[in-house]
Amino acid sequence: MNGFVYSVPTTVYFGSDEFRHLGEEVAGLGRTVLLCYGGGSIKRTGLYDRVMGQLAEQGLQVVELSGIEPNPRIGSVREGVRLCKEHDVDVVLAVGGGSTIDCAKFVCAGARSDRDPWDWFADKTIPITDALPLVTVLTLAATGSEMDDTGVISNPELQEKQGRGARVLLPKASFLDPENSYSVPPSQTAAGSADIIAHTLEVYLTTEDDLFFLDTFMEGLLRTVVRFAPVAMRDPTNYEARANLMWASSWAINGFADGGKRHGWSAHPMEHELSAFYDITHGLGLAILLPRWMRHCLDKDPATAGKLAQLAEQVFGVTDPALTEREKAEAGIDALAAFFTDELGLASTLGEIGIGDEHFERMAKKACDGKGGTIHGFVDLEPADVVAIFEACQ
Amino acid sequence: MNGFVYSVPTTVYFGSDEFRHLGEEVAGLGRTVLLCYGGGSIKRTGLYDRVMGQLAEQGLQVVELSGIEPNPRIGSVREGVRLCKEHDVDVVLAVGGGSTIDCAKFVCAGARSDRDPWDWFADKTIPITDALPLVTVLTLAATGSEMDDTGVISNPELQEKQGRGARVLLPKASFLDPENSYSVPPSQTAAGSADIIAHTLEVYLTTEDDLFFLDTFMEGLLRTVVRFAPVAMRDPTNYEARANLMWASSWAINGFADGGKRHGWSAHPMEHELSAFYDITHGLGLAILLPRWMRHCLDKDPATAGKLAQLAEQVFGVTDPALTEREKAEAGIDALAAFFTDELGLASTLGEIGIGDEHFERMAKKACDGKGGTIHGFVDLEPADVVAIFEACQ
Question: What topology does CATH give the domain A11-180?
Answer without folding.
Answer: Rossmann fold (3.40.50)
